[in-house]
Amino acid sequence: MTQQKLKPAEKKFSEPSSKMKKTEIGLIPEDWDLKKLGDVCVDMIGGGTPSTSNKSYWGGNIPWMTSAHILGRFVKSGQKSITKEGLQNSATHLVEKDNLLVATRVGIGKVAINKIDVTISQDLTGLIIDKSKAFNEYVYWQLTYNQRKIKSFAQGSTIKGVLRTDLAKLEIPLPSLIEQPSISEVLSTVDARLDIVERESQRVERLKVGLMKELFDGKWKTVKINEMLSLEYGKGLSRGQRKGGKFPVFGSNGIIGYHSEPLVKGPGILVGRKGSIGEICMTESDFWPIDTTYYVVLKKDLNLKWVYYLLSTMNLSRLNTATGIPGLNRDLVYNEEVSLPPIKEQNRITKVLETIDKKLLIQQSKKSKLESIKKSLMNDLLTGKKRVKVTQ
Questions:
Q1: For 61-88, b where at least 16 C-beta lie within 10 A, e where not — what string?
Q2: How much is the pTM?
Q3: Domain 1-32+176-209+347-392 belongs to what architecture?
Q4: Mean local confidence (pLDDT), 127-132
Q5: What is the mean pLDDT of the segment spanning 357-367?
Q6: Which CA distances in Å does 210 have to 274, 352, 356, 358?
Q7: What is the pLDDT of residue 50?
């Protein structure tokens, strides 16, 4: 049955009526139903992978995908393509467009709406939605909201998976077919804004990477790192000593607590020595580096922030000689050669990259706020705590 399209409608939020009812999943509006996922599906189908050793199964015109291809709300292309012969001689199935794909093995809980007909691997389950009962995007949002519960259904010792019979038992609150698209539209609008912010963040990040490659290219005299700086060992602190102070304690991948006294006067740069080797942090305050880190001591009159950016371009994690826990080899770092511009050029480079970093911080702040709004709206709208009123 074709989903009936709604006419343009005016939507606004309102508190639910006092008429709420108790259900197995909590209070929901009295005029909503509680349904099992299987009740709103015509079918739930599994997938498979055509034999990769048979070339006649691959390279056709039928899209095919694994759960790794779920990167957002919609799937609009295949990850690979198979032939009709590959479809007929494997466990894969075709999921017609405008239904749902749920990761039930690898990447359990990932969900997407397929905007094309697509065949699926064994990692996925295709949900063929009964469109006389449910709106596909509303079911998408309910599954996204219940991702943790879906993961809890997983069983198996080696590769864990969710059985279709268990997935079908997932209970979801179901408002009317008029209210479902209205709820979906609100959540999709926030999601679309998030997508715009994320794309802008990625654009700025690519710009930064390109600029750093250009700005740190070898245009000046070459020196070894040990001519510029030394990497000094941090000093260990027990867990109890990392509480109650005001000076940040740094491990190999960032702040892990606060101590009452600093070991090093800031600002400073820290480099991961054990564990997350090569991770670069910078702090403006006095700090305490523990023994899984190095801290930087300059040997020349250098712009410290420029040194931070320089070290961030060097991919120091490759300089690991430890056989057990990864460990950054300080001598190998010292032997690395880099281009050293004059201090005025260091200052110029630093200003350019700081401007980019400010743009990134703005985008990250926008993203954080939108994620908070989205989470709150999902909790309110998908449980009926708030309603979306529709005036036809």
A1: ebbbbbbebbeebebeebbbbbbeebbe
A2: 0.81
A3: Orthogonal Bundle (1.10)
A4: 97
A5: 95
A6: 29, 12, 11, 17
A7: 98
DSSP string, 309-344: HHHHTS-GGG-B--SSS-BB-HHHHHT-EEE---HH
Total residues belonging to the chain: 392
Statement: 221-340 belongs to CATH 3.90.220.20? yes
Paired with 339 in beta bridges are 222
Q: What SS3 state is found at 262?
A: coil
- Peptide bond just before 50 cis, omega within 30 deg: no
Q: Which of the 8 DSSP states describes residue 274? A: B
pLDDT-based confidence at residue 187 (cuts at 50, 70, 90): very high
C-beta atoms surrounding 212 within 10 Å: 18
Report the run of H or E that residue 335 belongs to, with start and end.
none
Which residues share a beta bridge with 13? Answer: 388
| Annotation: CATH topology of 34-174 | Adenine-n6-DNA-methyltransferase TaqI; Chain A, domain 2 (3.90.220)
Q: Which residues contact 369 (CB under 8 A, 6 or more apart)?
A: none
Same topology, domains 34-174 and 221-340? Answer is yes
Q: Strand, coil or helix: what is 380?
A: helix
Contacts for 283 with CB less than 8 Å, ≥ 6 apart: 248, 250, 266, 267, 268, 270
In angstroms, rounded to a whole number, what is the distance separating the alpha carbons of residues 309 and 210? 13
> With contact defined as beta carbons under 8 Å apart, do 62 and 83 qualify?
yes
Extents of the domains making up the chain? 1-32+176-209+347-392, 34-174, 221-340
Mean pLDDT of the chain: 93
CB of 258 closer than 8 Å to CB of 249: yes
**Would you give the DSSP letter of residue 389?**
E
The pLDDT of residue 257 is above 60: yes
What is the β-pairing status of strands 247-251 and 288-289? Answer: parallel
Return the SS3 of 299: coil
